[in-house]
Amino acid sequence: xxxxxxxxxxxxxxxxxxxxxxxxxxxxxxxxxxxxxxxxxxxxxxxxxxxxxxxxxxxxxxxxxxxxxxxxxxxxxxxxxxxxxxxxxxxxxxxxxxxxxxxxxxxxxxxxxxxxxxxxxxxxxxxxxxxxxxxxxxxxxxxxxxxxxxxxxxxxxxxxxxxxxxxxxxxxxxxxxxxxxxxxxxxxxxxxxxxxxxxxxxxxxxxxxxxxxxxxxxx
Amino acid sequence: xxxxxxxxxxxxxxxxxxxxxxxxxxxxxxxxxxxxxxxxxxxxxxxxxxxxxxxxxxxxxxxxxxxxxxxxxxxxxxxxxxxxxxxxxxxxxxxxxxxxxxxxxxxxxxxxxxxxxxxxxxxxxxxxxxxxxxxxxxxxxxxxxxxxxxxxxxxxxxxxxxxxxxxxxxxxxxxxxxxxxxxxxxxxxxxxxxxxxxxxxxxxxxxxxxxxxxxxxxx
Lengths: 219, 219
Hints:
Strand order of the largest sheet of chain A: 5-6-4-3-7-8-9
Structural class of chain A: alpha/beta
Helix content of chain A: 40-55%
Distance between the termini of chain A: 53 Å
Largest interface: A-B, 73 and 74 residues
Number of strands of chain A: 9
Oligomer: homodimer
Shape of chain A: elongated
Radius of gyration of chain A: 20 Å
Strand content of chain A: 15-25%
Number of helices of chain A: 9
Order of helices and strands of chain A: HHEHHEHEHEEEHEHEEH
């Protein structure tokens, strides 16, 4: 057990135990519990969380057991403790360096969105191939030439790359990033990216969301 | 069959037939086919698409059958036709008016991202409660007081609302939007929103993506 720093990581065994669907639900619980904390509420039951966010109470209790927290009979979970555990388990209270690849309209917007920082994502640099963008800063973040990625990556201490390049460049760019030590790609392009085993790819699927919305409205 | 305008909607029956997972894959095919079109490629087989985006060729052929397009034996799909059909079926080549609710750092960034417009999303107005934001424009888009939402919604012709408000306001705001005629919510908050039957809610789950990335990197 790794208990010797002030913001302990979840133990490795626990991280490997939690199923991905449960992991994806934890941020909902955290969001709700944060509002309770802000309102000075001391305890919350899984039944109350369930009513609020529309997930079965038994599922919530099961999900929360993965982060090693148990509610007290008839009282429920201690809000402050639950918020701290969730935030720590999810890694939202630690800084994770990331680079933004492609600083066109979406990339620049994501750099400027200070909200990501509150969830532990620190965008430390941007990269692009357009000469008119290179050398600028966006919200204080320096923009470098993509040609310098290999040279700068490890110095920047970033293992996460946010990809917002044009569709026809996406796969080639992904390959380059991985070759230079990037371990996780957060894909904002409409492309489906391929990557070797062991590399994390998360697709935001903005375009799939739009497709579903338009399709439902047209019915 | 609705064939009497220049950019026909997919027929209602066809829209209702397509399963959601298939619908969510179509934008991947479109993204890839667009790059082929830009490179002047005339035909593509499902095998080639499969290799490129890592979906079974048989699955691709099945998904594409929902949009009523069939490949020719030994030649494959006609790229230009496939691109047009996909774009039209997905509704990306028509304008859909949307409003941005909450024009803080993320909301403002999304308004400024001109990329969404290329996928048919036209953000026609923003709403906020902060007096210092109301009356401004962002990238030419006017920002109104949230208190005027009921009065302005139908005039703006928007059925889609993009929600980027603070967590503790999210559900209340969603209820207000729905009460005033919004049919689809694109949720960028970490909250899980509740809505009556018939209202579309798409969650971007930015925070779930970060949770998965951090968790995988910590392993």
